[in-house]
Amino acid sequence: MSEAVARPTLEAVAARAGVSRATVSRVVNGEAGVREALAAKVRRAVEELGYVPNRAARSLVTRRHDAVAVVIAEPETRVFADPFFALQLRGISKELTAHDVQLVLLLTEGRADHARVGRYLSGGHVDGALVFSLHLDDPLPGLVQGAGVPTVFGGRPGWAGGADARYVDCDNRGGARAAVRHLAGLGRTRIAHITGALDQTSAVDRLEGFRDVLPSPDARLVAEGDFSPAGGELAMRHLLDRCPDLDAVFAANDLSAAGALRVLRAAGRRVPDDVAVVGFDDMLPVAEQADPPLTTVRQDIEEMGRLMAAMLLRGRPRGSGRHPETDDADETASVVLPTELVRRESA
Amino acid sequence: MSEAVARPTLEAVAARAGVSRATVSRVVNGEAGVREALAAKVRRAVEELGYVPNRAARSLVTRRHDAVAVVIAEPETRVFADPFFALQLRGISKELTAHDVQLVLLLTEGRADHARVGRYLSGGHVDGALVFSLHLDDPLPGLVQGAGVPTVFGGRPGWAGGADARYVDCDNRGGARAAVRHLAGLGRTRIAHITGALDQTSAVDRLEGFRDVLPSPDARLVAEGDFSPAGGELAMRHLLDRCPDLDAVFAANDLSAAGALRVLRAAGRRVPDDVAVVGFDDMLPVAEQADPPLTTVRQDIEEMGRLMAAMLLRGRPRGSGRHPETDDADETASVVLPTELVRRESA
């Protein structure tokens, strides 16, 4: 294992290409003003000598890459199908861009690729990582911690050893309580719950909130979903089969509530007259364009993304000169954002 | 400028943490089986010494990172709003994953961030780049070429010096000809065109195809769009104002065709009876769920993404042992895929 690596110099590239050092520097730094023929010579010399621009060498020493990785523990098909992730990325992108830090989104086909994500994080390519949509049996938290890069998680950590992890979440349990209390306040007595994916803490916490208000629900009134519209449809069909007398549904997110609304309409149930429905997220335009428009629990998804990025940037190594607040421990503590019931027509 | 950098060794980290080399190795490589207390000690020593795992050092020498950057020259809001990009990424992700190469999506807020993207590409973090949705006055091609990483472009290069660039495209001009010929074959004589963003070669080529069939169109029958539904709506309103007697529209993509359909319906025009409409892309579910379902020109967007990734991987430096076809020059040549008219109800 060679620990000190002698690398070809900028001068060597200039000599090989027959151009000045300044020209090589402009080409490798992506600056304009070099004729294409010269630039091609430089690139050829760079390639032949295996020259690595100085920025990479410097970043190896300083461990500063001005880049942050985002890892969403879902297949890329889901990342692009669920607007939740686009919203969270919007907040992250705005905050990183404001600090001229590159957002590096690591996409996968699924969990089998997470070891490779861990290798990339270990490889010295980013200053930190933002990781969200974790599932409880996922090896990703261990891989991320093993990679030794500063990390902020989206959502309360649920894995062993996650107690010290920094995270941003919303008050899932309190929001769920507000939803179920609202339904009970409407006089509904047979209130069902379509859960999220129960290997995620957000789903577990919303189920707990449901149980806080209804400590001994009829077990048949709880059906497992997975935060998707299809999962909401399937769960709603099961609920109607098992409990045809239900008069309200709290769905763990707006997408599954939208699926439930479709099944209720197909079954001839009027919403909210026969069955009142409350979602979670206040995901626009899903909630507004639902039929009828959805009463839901609002969380500020974009702000959660922004906060995750801000927390990570504040935790960067000192000496950047751009984050004087680095030492303020309070500003890097985990954050749980409040939620708020938004009334529309479905309940 | 120091070109040979002495870095702390694995042994130094082990000594600092008071653990074995094997333990350090397991932690930095993200492997399981190390107690959290020990792993924490190792991470602290890694941090204090500024140790860089050997993988990073090795990749600096070999220039192999088993990672490929994807750069879409659009703001991230557009990347997540237009399903075209999700489809292209799906093809890219499948191909890269099949070769255990990490997909690194570099997101931006807009063109002002492209210099930073160029720096990341120059920084020795990826083996190559896939770049698409370029606009003609974008500095990105120059930045990418200056970065010296192998690159495959999506869409025919339109910038100066792009003649040698490798790319994957579809037959935009031939597809447009097929669309307009189909409308003419239906007996339509006042055929309008809603263009795409005319700073992109795909839009220019489709306009050329329209002109191939109708060499001297009434200039008022061509309205500029931008590939978005809102752009299609605006262009359709202009067309109806200027040419109320139009009897057909060829829109440069399905999203703008969907916008045009909404405006035609609001104006009381029956499709296809009064106005026949053809789109481009065959983007599902946009085309199928349009009202009426859209006749369009099909291109295989996912396959284009897959081919871009395959072409880049085949062009990687030799010696990987995984791409024996590296030397086959034909397999790294640019590709233009055929298009096909798909008839539904709108024309």
Automatic annotation (TrEMBL), chains A, B:
<feature type="domain" description="HTH lacI-type">
    <location>
        <begin position="8"/>
        <end position="62"/>
    </location>
</feature>
<dbReference type="Pfam" id="PF13377">
    <property type="entry name" value="Peripla_BP_3"/>
</dbReference>
<keyword id="KW-0238">DNA-binding</keyword>
<dbReference type="GO" id="GO:0003700">
    <property type="term" value="F:DNA-binding transcription factor activity"/>
</dbReference>
<dbReference type="GO" id="GO:0000976">
    <property type="term" value="F:transcription cis-regulatory region binding"/>
</dbReference>
<dbReference type="Pfam" id="PF00356">
    <property type="entry name" value="LacI"/>
</dbReference>
<dbReference type="InterPro" id="IPR046335">
    <property type="entry name" value="LacI/GalR-like_sensor"/>
</dbReference>
<feature type="region of interest" description="Disordered">
    <location>
        <begin position="316"/>
        <end position="347"/>
    </location>
</feature>
<dbReference type="InterPro" id="IPR000843">
    <property type="entry name" value="HTH_LacI"/>
</dbReference>
<keyword id="KW-0805">Transcription regulation</keyword>
<keyword id="KW-0804">Transcription</keyword>
<dbReference type="InterPro" id="IPR028082">
    <property type="entry name" value="Peripla_BP_I"/>
</dbReference>
<protein>
    <submittedName>
        <fullName>LacI family transcriptional regulator</fullName>
    </submittedName>
</protein>
<dbReference type="InterPro" id="IPR001387">
    <property type="entry name" value="Cro/C1-type_HTH"/>
</dbReference>
<dbReference type="InterPro" id="IPR010982">
    <property type="entry name" value="Lambda_DNA-bd_dom_sf"/>
</dbReference>
<feature type="domain" description="HTH cro/C1-type">
    <location>
        <begin position="9"/>
        <end position="52"/>
    </location>
</feature>
